Amino acid sequence: MPAVSKGDGMRGLAVFISDIRNCKSKEAEIKRINKELANIRSKFKGDKALDGYSKKKYVCKLLFIFLLGHDIDFGHMEAVNLLSSNKYTEKQIGYLFISVLVNSNSELIRLINNGIKNDLSSRNPTFMCLALHCIANVGSREMAEAFAGEIPRILVAGDTMDSVKQSAALCLLRLYKTSPDLVLMGEWTSRVVHLLNDQHMGVVTAAISLITCLSQKNPDEFKTCVSLAVSRLSRIVSSASTDLQDYTYYFVPAPWLSCKLLRLLQCYPPPEDGAVKGRLVECLETILNKAQEPPKSKKVQHSNAKNAILFEAIALIIHYDSEPNLLVRACNQLGQFLQHRETNLRYLALESMCTLASSEFSHEAVKTHIETVINALKTERDVSVRQRAADLLYAMCDRSNAKQIVAEMLSYLETADYSIREEMVLKVAILAEKYAVDYSWYVDTILNLIRIAGDYVSEEVWYRVIQIVINRDDVQGYAAKTVFEALQAPACHENMVKVGGYILGEFGNLIAGDPRSSPLVQFNLLHSKFHLCSVPTRALLLSAYIKFINLFPETKSTIQEVLRSDSQIRNSDVELQQRAVEYLKLSSIASTDVLATVLEEMPPFPERESSILAKLKKKKGPGAVSSTEQEDGKREGGELNGGGERGADSTIAASNASTPSPSADLLGLRSSGPVSAAPPSAGSLLVDVFSEAGPAAPAAAVNDDGFLSSAPPSVVSEDPAPPMPQSDELLHKFVCKSNGVLFENQLLQIGVKSEYRQNLGRMYLFYGNKTSVQFVSFSTSVTYTGELQSHIHELSLNVQTKPVEPLVEGGAQVQQVINIECLTDFSDAPLLNIKFRYGGALQNLTLKLPVTVNKFFQPTEMVSHDFFQRWKQLSQPQQEAQKIFKASHGMDKEVLKGKRIMENFVCAGVIQTKAQQVGCLLRLEPNAQAQMYRLTLRSSKDTVSKRLCDLLAEQF
Amino acid sequence: MMRFLLLFSRQGKLRLQKWFTPLPERERKKIVRDMTTLVLARKPRTCNFLHWKDLKIVYKRYASLYFCCALEEQENELLALEILHRYVELLDKYFGNVCELDIIFNFEKAYFILDEFLMGGEVQETSKQSIANSIEASDMLQETMEEYMSKPAF
């Protein structure tokens, strides 16, 4: 036991702490504290200079008061003074106070930096460590600016003590995380990697955290660490349990270092070098084998440390997702843990299995544990474990077990904890829709959901069931019958009344043949619930009633009477009153034909993604929805019936039935065609910003004219990739459109909104991360291509981009603003290069920014006489560009604002550039018989005529 | 990395707080409130892990004190449990049969020991011996800088 410790150095402090502890009430405590604060304040302000010891004691008291939860607004200066004390303990208290109390933006930082600088150059390892700790604790930008250059030097210097190296590594990591731009890579980086080989285990343990973080951001520069990490891991894994002396923790050799090594390897794909890979697989197998060995100690610390390594190894196996043998072994191991008596292990096994369920190699193996998981859901005493079980059931669900899982989740809902009910409801609703083979099952499930947990059924859920019933005529009769039965219950949830009102109002006729559900019986049933409902539900019911008048003329007089009653027609709620008045009037004056037209059955809803899933994501935050969704999207994306093509034609609805519930539709990821008539969705849908967008750009490669397709789009290098083959196609979609989805693949969706005025444009790009994993090192750049580049001195476009956040969380979306100034006319679009890392792999793609010269077009009003006069003035051959082409969209479109003269469309406008204004005239002559167009453009500049003609010809 | 580490008593009294990322005071107080209510409400023999916002909470009770830390998504919960345990061991080694009172009266020592073990939310040194040595060495550093510098190098 050290001689000087336990606060006996500061008797005053101990007395003060005792006093506080003896206070009988909060008031007494506050009184004592205020007395002490006044005392300290007077001491600090007093004329007599305080000695170091007193200063230390008072600063320490202030710290204690602060830690009790009281505000401290003085004493900072005294603490900073302590930094320059030559007594170690005074210095130490000074640093502690600063670490705990100083905000990163304090004005004192400069003074503190001075103290730190002195200690860093003192060459006294203890002082250096104190200073490094302080930097790591405060971690402000000013500190990074002052020391980011110095610390790497300390870290790799040959004469630095091991303990200082450890502190320097972690301090640098902290600075790198707060201000990555200030930590410059350099000659030290390669030497840092070699710290993995350091003799001192403590140094390796500290350095590897830094290396892992640096590797995530700059994988290529650090890739030599893979083989070093594998050999270090292999040495640890194969060492006897006592080889590593004090780094052995309860008979487990270096558990912290092992886990960090396994984590570092998760930044990279499997090693390419066969020998390295073999060695690593051997390590992973050894770790899996050790799990089967009898424990070397009964202590929980032993099994925790051992299993920590095991789970980290499994995480690596899942990350590689390429070794079926290891994946299945991992799955079996987790299966054993599912029944382990340690709650912690059951919890973690459920959690890990969720990720395993998304691998195609292990999905089936995970499914074999379904009974255990269901059992866990029913019997676990701990709600957080039950929650994990519910997550896993959701992740392992597919067509083969959907009915069982949904049934189990429903029955669990009856007793589920309130905290997780809403989420459970969303999950059941999603699974029911995703895997519905027959829609009567779907309807039953949702109605059950409302019955069991009506309060937790959000609007999205019941809107969705109505959309689906309306769009599928094979289920309408069944839905009407079921909802009618459900409403028989003496007490039913208001959501049930809503669904009931809507469905009976639309399809009540389908069950009206049965005298037990005759029109009047249906009406009376609905109306019996009316008075218990809230205003919005009553409003909905009134609409159902008017629909009844149309469906069943025999109910007219009864319903009119209801509408006429004072409680409706004089209702104090303006919406109800208005509906009652209007419906009453409508029913009395309109003829049957008019009524039938007005109250016609609802047309099918445009097929649109379910917003339920988006809601679930929002609720749980990124990463919550297991990656199964993405997987399924990948597997089944092909069969999705693209929303854009879907018309109001009911024959399509029939064909839909053959591909039930396109799963991708549920993902809430794909943008669909028309603006939905569906009820408003949950707000922050990933795609909401695109809701006015056209059909999603096809992600599959489109065969273009081929001049760019020589380079495959998947080439991954640090240089900006060449533009994707389909980039021209994508560009053409935006010639006459300012908003929409520019690009989409499995990982990323890019949406565009743009606006132009005169020669200026502003474009908003929305990068949506479709995965549940964050994108790191996300960066974008805009470059010029071909022609634009060669005229570097007379740039045609001035494009300014604002940088984007380098991190895009899973499911999140980041926005980038691009300002564009058109200097002179141009033909080629700027290139947009996007780079990021997804699970360690570099993604690099290049698109054409949808900026075309016609965006700077301003229409001009002109009478036809003027038009033709000008047309004739521009008669030189080079001023004209002409194309004759076949109509590709049928002949009913008018793209540009123009004047119609006979069978000709003409337009006039001015292209606004900074340098000049270019007047343009356009003439489009359709030939309906031949389905051909002739497009002629004349302008004062030949390049403009040509480019506009090319651009616009694609649009017809 | 670890985001924060809290020690609080069964009555919800905070005994030690360590924040590895800067947060405004108001936010810290809210987190402390959330953590104490969340953890103290847990029944015995339940698991030691929780999800809270986007963080994993790992906690363990030692006698009258709860040790509670928050981890980022990809961190290993079991290992965090052992970080807590190792910290308890370190306190124990230093104070000899550590109890809550030791931490109340010597809170600054509790911080110093923690600083030797963790830095910036990452494990700096796991060897019990190394940490004990450096704490001891700093306790011995009572002499002034001049005295220290005039000593022969060791």
UniProtKB/TrEMBL annotation, chain A:
Residues 732-850 form the Clathrin adaptor alpha/beta/gamma-adaptin appendage Ig-like subdomain domain. Its main location: membrane. InterPro entries: Adaptor_Complx_Large_Subunit, AP2_complex_asu, ARM-like, ARM-type_fold, Clathrin/coatomer_adapt-like_N, Clathrin_a-adaptin_app_sub_C, Clathrin_a/b/g-adaptin_app_Ig, Clathrin_app_Ig-like_sf. One of its GO terms (molecular function) is clathrin adaptor activity. One of its GO terms (cellular component) is AP-2 adaptor complex. It comes from the Eukaryota. It is a peripheral membrane protein. Residues 650-664 have a biased composition (Low complexity). Gene3D superfamilies: 2.60.40.1230, Leucine-rich Repeat Variant, TATA-Binding Protein. Residues 616-674 are annotated as: Disordered. SMART domains: Alpha_adaptinC2 (SM00809). Belongs to the adaptor complexes large subunit family. PANTHER family: ADAPTIN, ALPHA/GAMMA/EPSILON (PTHR22780). Adaptor protein complex 2 (AP-2) is a heterotetramer composed of two large adaptins (alpha-type subunit AP2A1 or AP2A2 and beta-type subunit AP2B1), a medium adaptin (mu-type subunit AP2M1) and a small adaptin (sigma-type subunit AP2S1). This is AP-2 complex subunit alpha. It comes from Denticeps clupeoides.
UniProtKB/TrEMBL annotation, chain B:
PANTHER family: ADAPTOR COMPLEXES SMALL SUBUNIT FAMILY (PTHR11753). GO terms for molecular function: clathrin adaptor activity. The keyword DNA damage does not apply. This is AP complex subunit sigma. It comes from the Eukaryota. It is found in: Cytoplasmic vesicle membrane; Golgi apparatus; Membrane, Clathrin-coated pit. Belongs to the adaptor complexes small subunit family. It is a peripheral membrane protein. One of its GO terms (cellular component) is AP-1 adaptor complex. Keywords: Coated pit, Cytoplasmic vesicle, Golgi apparatus, Membrane, Protein transport, Transport. Residues 1-140 form the AP complex mu/sigma subunit domain. GO terms for biological process: intracellular protein transport. SUPFAM superfamilies: SNARE-like (SSF64356). InterPro entries: AP1_sigma (IPR044733), AP_complex_ssu (IPR016635), AP_mu_sigma_su (IPR022775), Clathrin_sm-chain_CS (IPR000804), Longin-like_dom_sf (IPR011012). Adaptor protein complex 1 (AP-1) is a heterotetramer composed of two large adaptins (gamma-type subunit AP1G1 and beta-type subunit AP1B1), a medium adaptin (mu-type subunit AP1M1 or AP1M2) and a small adaptin (sigma-type subunit AP1S1 or AP1S2 or AP1S3). It holds the Pfam family Clat_adaptor_s. The gene is ap1s3b.
